[in-house]
Specification:
With 259 residues, the chain is of the alpha/beta class. The protein has one domain: TIM Barrel. The chain contains 11 helices and 8 strands. α9 links the parallel β7 and β8. α2 runs parallel beside α3, α2 crosses α11 and α6 packs parallel to α8. The longest helix is centred in the C-terminal third of the chain and has 20 residues. The N and C termini lie far apart (40 Å).
C-alpha cells in the first residue's frame, strides 16, 4: 500500500501560495514508449488544473522524444492557467513559439543524448545569440525565462541579455545527501535568488524537486514559482494525477517574508 503523503493543512488555490507549474513531459514519454495515443498529455493538463496547478510546463525537444507539436497546439487551447514552453535557444524553436504563443518561454540547454536537462544555460558564452532570440520573443510580447545554475555570473548575464525571469536549477540540491552538501546548495540558491530579484528578474526554481525536499526551498522568499514534473507524475501512478498535484500544491505555501 502506498504510504500517504502528509501535507500541510493549506488549501490549494489560496492566494497565500507561491505558484506551482506542473511539467507533464513524462506523460508523453509513457505514450511514446508504445507509439500510441495513451496516456494523453491533454487529459493530464486538465487533471493537473483540477488539482490546483497554477500552470503547465512542457519541453518541446528538437528530437520530439516526448511532447509533440500536436500536443503543444492542443494545450494552448486547453490550458486555462499558464502555459510555459521549455525549448532550446534555437531559431526553429522560436518560430514554433511565435505560432503557438505560450504565456512564457523558458530557454534551456539541450543535448540529444541526455535523459533530462543536466545543467543550466551558459548565458555568458551565448550572450549575443540569446539577446537576439529574447528580443524576437519580446516583439511578440512573450516573456522569457532562462534556466540557469545558481551562479552569480550567469544571473548577471541573464539580466544583461534582457530576460524577464530565471529558473534556478535545483538539481545539485536535489541530488545532495550529506547535510553539509545540502546546506551548501541551499545557501547558493538563496544567494542566487536574492541577486536575481535585485537585478529585476522574477525567480523560479526547478529540477529534481520532490515531496520530500521541496519544503526547505519554500523558505526562500524570493522564489515565486516551483516547476515540478517527475515526482508528481511518479506519485500519480499510485494515487492519480489530480491528487498528486493537490498534495504537492499543499507543500508550497507563501513563506512569511513574501508579500
Amino acid at each position: 500500500m502506498m504510504d500517504p503523503i502528509r501535507c500541510p493543512s493549506t488549501s490549494p488555490g489560496s492566494k497565500d501560495m507561491a505558484r506551482l507549474g506542473v511539467n507533464i513531459d513524462h506523460v508523453a514519454t509513457l505514450r511514446q514508449a508504445r507509439g500510441g495515443y495513451e496516456p494523453d498529455p491533454i487529459a493530464a493538463a486538465v487533471l493537473a488544473d483540477l488539482g490546483g496547478a497554477d500552470g503547465l510546463v512542457v519541453h518541446l525537444r528538437e528530437d520530439r522524444r516526448h511532447i509533440q507539436e500536436r500536443d503543444l497546439t492542443l494545450l494552448r487551447d486547453v490550458v486555462h492557467s499558464s502555459l510555459n514552453l521549455e525549448m532550446a535557444a534555437e531559431a526553429s524553436m522560436a518560430n514554433i513559439a511565435l505560432q503557438v504563443r505560450p504565456d512564457k518561454v523558458t530557454l534551456v540547454p539541450e543535448r540529444r543524448q541526455e535523459l533530462t536537462t543536466e545543467g543550466g544555460l551558459a548565458v555568458t558564452e551565448h550572450h549575443d545569440r540569446l539577446a537576439r532570440l529574447i528580443r524576437r520573443l519580446h516583439e511578440a510580447e512573450i516573456p522569457v525565462s532562462l534556466f540557469i545554475d545558481p551562479d552569480l555570473t550567469q544571473i548577471h548575464a541573464a539580466s544583461n541579455v534582457g530576460a524577464d525571469a530565471v529558473e534556478l536549477h535545483t538539481g545539485r540540491y536535489a541530488n545532495s545527501r550529506r547535510p553539509q552538501d545540502i546546506h551548501k546548495e541551499v545557501a547558493a540558491l538563496i544567494q542566487g535568488a536574492q541577486l536575481a530579484q535585485k537585478s529585476g528578474l522574477e525567480v523560479n526554481a526547478g529540477h529534481g524537486l520532490t515531496y520530500h525536499n521541496i519544503q526547505r526551498l519554500t523558505t526562500i522568499d524570493e522564489i515565486v514559482e516551483f516547476n515540478i514534473g517527475h515526482s508528481i507524475i511518479s506519485r500519480a501512478v499510485f494515487v492519480g494525477l489530480e491528487r498528486a498535484v493537490r498534495e504537492m500544491r499543499a507543500f508550497i505555501p507563501l513563506s512569511p517574508g513574501r508579500s
